[in-house]
Amino acid sequence: MLRLRGMTIRGIVEELPKYQIINEKRGKPWSRKPVHDDLLALAKEWQEAAAAHTDDLKGNILAEIREVRRAAWEGKELKVVLAALEDERKLLGMDAAGGVGSTSDMPAHTVNYTLDEWKVERDRRRAEAEKALTMFDGGDSDA
Known about the structure:
The protein has helices spanning 9-15, 32-74, 78-91, 115-136. It is mainly alpha-helical.
């Protein structure tokens, strides 16, 4: 693709006839307007394809993270559980401005925290979970 080689629209218009690519209806080289319009359409297609591919990849990674978390719970590996939760949070974009519980993407009944408040709450819950796991397995936890 000439555009991917860094060519301008003008350069592409000049280059197309060298490949016998002309406007067959007019029997003349393409003008800048149709080349420009085609490039815009291609860019849109590429962006949509990239977004779909990215969503598929995120879905696959999320499934793997959840499987790791499930196995970690089963194996009483609290540090792995917590790391998987952290990875999932990052993958889902919960580090974004506005914090966790932003009203734009959470149900109305959800408690809203700023990101800093959420981190304090997360750390408090981690400490409770580590304490509970230690009590549960007789102090032999991975934590």
